[in-house]
Write a structure and sequence with these properties.
The chain has ten helices and 13 strands. The protein starts with 10 loop residues before the first strand and ends with a strand. By secondary structure, the protein is of the alpha+beta class. The strands form three sheets. The chain has a nine-stranded mixed sheet, with helices on both faces. Strands 2-3 form a two-stranded antiparallel sheet. GO terms for molecular function: hydroxymethylglutaryl-CoA synthase activity. This is Hydroxymethylglutaryl-CoA synthase.
């Protein structure tokens, strides 16, 4: 059980998002697959997806997002005490992404790093772990990243939305100027075989509509309901709500089930234009919200990762 304690020493010091310039039209992909472009686009509610260039990978995306976060935070790279990168497309099966990112950023050698993998929720899990290290006093600030160059088998349904991008967050204690305060976190996990890729396989497998929808709603809705109960809050207490966005239909339906309005979802709703960059999806949505939210507005994030689980983050813009 995760205690619903409130953080007292953790805030967002800087954040950055990076989305590759390349785009692939969902209509064009549908045409190539011999399907109706209009029907597929309407069904998914996605017009296009971001596509990484041939010289871009999870490391380069992470570095670009992290550099923006560093620039905004105005802290020195060597002040970072931990780097955690969440992704399901780490370039190496055996070699950490975090150490490469740290070397490029000039963090030095005095820091902790580890890579995470939990489908599309590894980025929010990185935030939770960094926050725990800060709250415990082990580090003063740390870098959490969610980044992916998503894979999809040619001709598979995932090909329509599997995109690329990165979201990076520098969290710090009260020694630093906060842009937002981290209030509380939560998590909801089960062993649900929704989406998987065995070692050595190039593309992931999934059970399609038999698990994708039920697994998403069980975890996103279940995690959010549990979090609201534990924190004694209502969905209406949050001016902005970000759910993981595999397409437009799922988060919109989850919002309706939970009683969240379209206006609460709107600011961070990026999926129609960038697709699903997996571990970066929720973090890029949160970045969009933090850019536009007004002071003292509350933000709720619920990620989702196949396998399956959801994380919750509650923040207040400062």
């Amino acid at each position: 059980m995760i205690n619903s304690k409130s953080f007292t020493k953790v805030g967002v010091v800087g954040f950055g998002g990076y989305i590759p310039a390349g785009r692939a039209s969902v209509a064009e992909i549908a045409q190539k697959q011999g399907k109706s472009p209009e029907q597929v686009t309407a069904s998914l509610g996605v017009k296009q997806k971001a596509v990484a260039d041939r010289d871009e990978d999870t490391v380069s995306l992470s570095v670009e997002a992290a550099r923006l976060a560093l620039l905004q935070s105005k802290i020195k790279p060597e002040q970072i005490g931990a780097i955690i990168v969440g992704s399901e497309s780490h370039p190496y099966a055996v070699k950490p992404t975090g150490s490469i990112v740290g070397e490029i950023l000039g963090v030095g050698n005095d820091y902790l790093t580890v890579d995470l993998e939990f489908a599309c929720k590894a980025g929010t899990s990185a935030i939770i772990l960094i926050a725990g290290l800060i709250e415990a006093g082990l580090i003063d600030c740390g870098l959490a990243i969610g980044a992916d160059v998503a894979q999809a088998k040619p001709g598979d349904a995932l090909e329509f939305t599997a995109g690329a991008g990165a979201g990076a967050y520098i969290l710090g204690n009260k020694k630093f100027r906060w842009l937002a305060r981290l209030n509380q976190v939560g998590s909801f996990t089960s062993d649900t075989p929704d989406f998987w890729r065995r070692q050595g396989e190039k593309y992931p497998s999934h059970a399609g509509r038999f698990t994708a929808g039920p697994a998403y709603f069980r975890h996103v809705v279940g995690a959010t309901e549990k979090f609201l109960r534990q924190t004694k809050t209502k969905i209406s207490d949050y001016q902005h709500v970000v759910f993981h966005m595999p397409n437009s239909k799922f988060p919109t339906r989850a919002a309706k089930i939970l009683g969240a309005s379209e206006s609460q979802l709107k600011t961070g709703f990026l999926v129609p234009q960038i697709g699903n960059p997996y571990s970066a999806s929720s973090l890029l949505g949160l970045a969009a919200v933090l850019e536009k939210a007004k002071k003292q507005q509350k933000i709720l994030v619920t990620s989702y990762g196949s396998g399956a689980g959801s994380d919750n983050l509650s923040l207040t813009k400062l």
